[in-house]
Amino acid sequence: MTSSPSPFRFPVAARYAGMESSPLKDIFALAAREDVVSFAGGIPDPELFALEDVTACYDWVLAKNGHRALQYGVSEGEVELREQAARRVSRDLPTDVSQIRVTSGSQEGLFVVAQALLEPGDVVLVESPTYLAAVQAFSVHGARMIGVETDDDGVIPEALEEAIRTHHPRMVYLIPTFQNPTGRTMPVERRQAVADVLLRTDVPLIEDDPYGALSFTGSTWAPIAALPGMSERTILLNSMSKLMSPGVRIGWMRAEGPVLDTLAVAKAAISMQSSVVDQLMVARYLETADLDAHVATVSGVYRERRDAMARAIAPVLPDGAHVTHPEGGMFLWAALGEGYDAQEMLSAAVEAGVAYLPGWSFFADNADRSTMRLSFVTHSPAVIEDAIATLGEVIAAHRA
User: Fold this and answer.
1) Is residue 281 a contact partner of residue 358, using CB atoms and an 8 Å limit?
2) pTM over 0.85
3) What is the pLDDT of residue 187?
4) pLDDT (tens digit, 9 = 90+) per residue, 288-322?
5) Where does CATH 3.40.640.10 sit in the chain?
6) Where in the chain is the domain with CATH 3.90.1150.10?
7) In this structure, are residues 234 and 194 in contact, taking their beta carbons and an 8 Å threshold?
8) Residue 299 and which of 8, 119, 170, 322 are 20 to 30 A apart at CA?
9) What is the pLDDT of residues 141-179, one digit of tens each?
């Protein structure tokens, strides 16, 4: 009697070893569970989508440009969208069509940048903590992430300069406005200090700005790329996902000089082009709809939900815990302190009917396992308050 052969398994590249799952994949699994109130993902409330405007734009594109919309496009992106993107970026930083490259959301932009700029073994300096998918994108291209110390104003310039001197990075990756995961915003003076470090050390910047328009105060912050001397050494990433609809995977990069051609080649190698029909729809939307008014409405709702979460979470946190109070964006960040492990606590929280994202996955190194990211954008204030009360009971049961 012969034994049954073992099931066939494809050999997996070393860079994906141990990645059968990922925090991003797990976010959407939690969000799909009807028995759990999930604060894990930055998933917009679909009731806030401008469905009528988007429908009208798709209808117009298919009626007026249907054959073109359904055809192949160009790797750089469709000119109508690049014109609209350049117009928006120019509010802070003079930009023309030639300086825009379209991506399928900021997420693909990170992979395009990594493909175009990184060699195995290169060092990338990131905030500690930083966006977890950026860590993944750079890591699978063989780069080594080094976390740089931060405070409530973002990355600390002196720590950044010391890390540059020590590690000789290929580039620095920052999210200065309503940062994911912490919600922190870098003040103007800090942005200038960071720019001074980068100019002095001649290190390029990858600046990610998917949340900057989602301000709760009406104040906005120009990107570091807009500071004197920085535009030529910065690749600036923007996205329509958080402003209009995450299902329409459209964003763009703004850069200058020969790297633009390299970015287009890398984009072509990854996905050839972004969806033409979606690009033309977004271009039509930006031309005819009032995105600023829509974003103002959404931001007002998000502000109420942030306030509800902030009120609810303050009394349930342990003594010595630290929680951010973001002025915009989608996320609140809590550090419970010594003796707590948010990953170990997650299963009990999910069992109780509430989920968050453990913070360890946002660190390139030296993770603080007591941290958690909570998104306040998906649920109503009443649902938020009830679920945070439940989370408080879980935290209390895990006190050291």
Assistant:
1) no
2) yes
3) 98
4) 999 999 999 999 999 999 999 999 999 999 999 99
5) 51-288
6) 19-49+293-397
7) no
8) 322
9) 999 999 999 999 999 999 999 999 999 999 999 999 999
- Is the pLDDT score of 8 beyond 90? no
Reduce the secondary structure of 145-185 to three states and give it as a string: EEEECEECCEECHHHHHHHHHHHCCCEEEECCCCCCCCCCC
Per-residue three-class SS string for the chain? CCCCCCCCCCCCCHHHCCCCCCHHHHHHHHHCCCCCEECCCCCCCHHHCCHHHHHHHHHHHHHHHHHHHCCCCCCCCCHHHHHHHHHHHCCCCCCCHHHEEEECHHHHHHHHHHHHHCCCCCEEEEECCCCHHHHHHHHCCCCEEEEECEECCEECHHHHHHHHHHHCCCEEEECCCCCCCCCCCCCHHHHHHHHHHHHHHCCCEEEECCCCCCECCCCCCCCHHHCCCCHHHEEEEEECCCCCCCCCCCEEEECCCCHHHHHHHHHHHHHCCCCHHHHHHHHHHHHHCCHHHHHHHHHHHHHHHHHHHHHHHHHHCCCCCEECCCCECCEEEEECCCCCCHHHHHHHHHHHCEECEEHHHHCCCCCCCCEEEEECCCCCHHHHHHHHHHHHHHHHHCCC
Between 7 and 362, name the one with better pLDDT. Answer: 362
CATH number listed for the domain at residues 51-288:
3.40.640.10
Q: Provide mean pLDDT across the span 16-31.
A: 61
Q: List, for residues 225-249, the tens digit of each pLDDT value.
A: 999 999 999 999 999 999 999 999 9
**Interatomic CA distance for residues 333 and 317, integer angstroms:** 12
Q: Which CATH architecture has domain 19-49+293-397?
A: Alpha-Beta Complex (3.90)
Produce one character per residue of 296-309: b if its CB has 16 or more CB atoms within 10 Å, e if not. eebbebbbebbebb
Q: How far is the C-alpha of 301 from the C-alpha of 177, rounded, in Å?
A: 19
**Is 316 in contact with 389 (CB distance < 8 Å)?**
yes
Task: Give the pLDDT band of residue 18 (cuts 50, 70, 90).
Answer: low
